[in-house]
Amino acid sequence: MLSYNEIKRGRFIVFQEEPYKVLESTISKKNRNKPNNQTKIKSLISGKTLEKTFHSSDSVKEADLSRENIKYLYIKNDEVCFCIDQKPKERFFLNFSEIKDKLKFLKQNDVILGLYFEEKLIDLIIPDKVTLKVKNSPPAVAGNSATSASKKITLENDLEIFVPLFIKEEDFIIINTEKGEYVERKK
Length: 187
Description:
Blueprint: E1 2-3, E2 12-15, E3 18-28, E4 36-43, E5 49-55, E6 59-62, E7 65-76, E8 79-84, E9 87-95, H1 96-103, E10 111-117, E11 120-125, E12 129-136, E13 150-155, E14 160-164, E15 172-176, E16 181-185
Antiparallel strand pairs: 1-6, 2-3, 2-6, 3-4, 4-5, 7-8, 7-10, 8-9, 10-11, 12-13, 12-15, 13-14, 15-16
């Protein structure tokens, strides 16, 4: 059990029978009142964010989360097939619409982290940056530099993003998965 002052940013707690991640935490004491911990927490299951104040008499259970490498295999109809890494026979399916925002940065056979709570998969953790190959890149147009001098390209997994004009087909580029933006060309 965690006391009110141990509920800090980055910790995982169980609140209302769900795992939450602590996003912000501020311990304060006003005048003669007892100290409290004002937090902002995010549900790992529903994604909703709450502001919750824990008082000095409160305590919460630390969430027992486990992580396991899982491999993205393929999409069939509206389901995405994954398997436990190194155990290709242990396959499972997830609904495409629930994970499409994370899936757009992956290509077949990429290994990512699965986050489990009470032996149930609750989230997919993709890297902050991924390297992808440029599949289609139109040539740079001379005089097209009045704005930010960028062009739209297609990557090997059919993701389309804007990149600088010097990017060519067959280049490998690094993408920020949080923002969905070009970072740099891989050397």
